């Protein structure tokens, strides 16, 4: 009988984990064309699943098929309305930039030339370039090209996202059968189901928080912009709502751009300052008073990790990665916490050092959680031939 193999040292085990993370990141980058539409479809499924549960809970008398149908219809309707409002207003804005008035002048272009002249005089330039000359010198296509290409990629992937979503919805019925085949014992199935529920709950919590707080900011900013008289206030409200799904950077950018547009619309600097101050006050109140209270009840991700994950997933998957950076990090943290060798990474990602919501009854309903070895066995040991 051969002697047992020596146990791996913690250093070598941690090195293996780091190498696995690097290899996984490279695979995610190389396969981004396939994985990004699937990831969007998966999180759309999570949103539909959460909305279906709310409808089933509030309206228990509905037929069994009705909650899912209503949830799918509402999500697709919201998506379609958002696309229509954004696309129609962008086309209208582009028309305003290119259309001349009765005197052969374009008010937006004239105002932009005036702003360029004011900035030039402020920095000591006597002869300021016109808007046309400035565009020719700066060549903005060089900077906007990657952004426009990413937007076009999202639009072209819409069909694949819907196809993935349809197959994911159809495969929900067979998930329990697959779970019984993957995890042989009843204990392992229960533990794997708990882990999957944690992943779904964490993603739903994040999407719910971002949706509610984003809607609050968008509605309040819409009132501010409407009171000032800003053109296309509804479009900017939708823009603020959509950018709210990008953590940290999104709300700041979404609430600042309407003030830049106000500089083009109004002659003086008073209305743009009012738009900027009002939007930033709304963003500050919601982001520093309401959002932390909602986040403390659901998410457990370190704020620094949120910023780093935004940069990481944006580098891997572009705009799609920016929108999904935090929920993907939540999923990664929960999965890494299930294995003893990678648990230290999950601890670093968490805010309070406890990446498992159910461990020691920290934030979950269970009073006592199983040790990491039991959790990793539930995920890592596939035993379809083991009797329950």
Topology diagram in text:
Blueprint: H1 10-30, H2 32-58, H3 66-98, H4 107-122, H5 131-138, H6 141-156, H7 158-171, H8 175-182, H9 186-228, H10 233-243, H11 249-265, H12 270-296, H13 303-336, H14 343-349, H15 372-380
Helix pairs in contact: 2-3, 2-7, 2-9, 2-13, 3-10, 9-10, 9-12, 9-13, 9-15, 10-11, 11-12, 13-14
Q: What attributes does this structure have?
A:
388 residues, mainly alpha, 2 domains, 15 helices, 75% helix, globular, disordered C terminus
Q: How much strand content do the residues show?
A: under 5%
Quickly count the domains. 2
Computed structural class: mainly alpha
The coarse overall form would be globular
Quickly count the helices: 15
Explain what this protein looks like in three dimensions.
The chain is an all-alpha fold and 388 residues long. It has two domains: 27-96 and 139-171, no CATH class; 186-382, no CATH class. Helix content is 75%, strand content 0%. The protein contains 15 helices and no strands. The protein has helices at residues 10-30, 32-58, 66-98, 107-122, 131-138, 141-156, 158-171, 175-182, 186-228, 233-243, 249-265, 270-296, 303-336, 343-349, 372-380. Helix 2 packs across helix 7 and helix 9 (186-228) packs antiparallel against helix 13 (303-336). The two termini are 32 Å apart. The model is unreliable at 101-105, 360-374 and 376-388 (pLDDT under 50).
